[in-house]
Specification:
Distance between the termini: 68 Å
Number of strands: 0
Helix content: over 70%
Largest sheet: none
Order of helices and strands: HHHHHHHHHHH
Number of helices: 11
């Protein structure tokens, strides 16, 4: 009986040590990848690995949720590609913690001058607005802040982001803002979005 108890205790200890080893290694791996994300030479490969890791491992996702907003807050002027990758990760992983910092950069067109209307309204040239649309309803308050205080382009992109979210909350947000929008062309844009939603529920 004593031998059996010792064996069980040893198995439990080994299991717990194995789990601790696994969890201690994962943040280290993610930490290294995150450093590579910030480097121009390694950012693209690191972004793909971080995306896959965070989809499978909640600890990796939590790590990114704490740190991506810091990169995003710096903006696209310096180290553009690492910034774009950080924004893309925030959108695809729906990192709600990044939404306020993403909202600061709505309206920044980073695509080529020769883009189609479809590409433009899908926000393919505005990574921050697209990421907010991917985050969904939790991004509506920051988008409303853009609608109330942003420049004209940023407000238009916020409308497109709410259009892509296409939830009841997004519709209500546009309805509420419609009467307060000072520019007639943006009021027309909002009304067109709302009219299309009514035709295609």
């Amino acid at each position: 009986m004593r031998t059996l108890k010792v064996g069980v205790i040893a198995l439990v200890v080994a299991t717990e040590l194995g789990a601790l080893t696994m969890y201690s290694q994962e943040p280290a791996d993610v930490h290294v990848l995150f450093q590579q994300l910030e480097s121009l030479d390694t950012t693209n490969a690191a972004a793909e690995q971080l995306l896959n890791s965070a989809k499978e491992n909640p600890h990796a996702r939590e790590y990114l949720a704490r740190r991506l907003p810091t990169i995003i807050a710096k903006g696209p002027d310096n180290h553009l590609q690492p910034w774009r990758n950080a924004v893309r990760l925030a959108g695809e992983l729906r990192v709600v913690e990044a939404a306020p910092n993403l909202a600061n950069w709505v309206g920044q067109d980073l695509g080529s001058m020769d883009v189609s209307l479809g590409t433009y309204v899908r926000l393919e040239t505005d990574p921050s607005a697209k990421a907010l649309a991917q985050i969904g309803d939790p991004a509506i308050p920051p988008l409303l802040d853009v609608l109330n205080h942003g420049d004209r382009k940023a407000r238009a992109h916020a409308v497109y982001a709410l259009r892509l979210i296409r939830s009841d909350s997004a519709k209500n947000a546009l309805n509420q803002h419609l009467k307060d929008e000072p520019e007639s062309d943006l009021r027309d844009l909002i009304q067109k979005v709302l009219d299309k939603w009514q035709m295609v529920p």
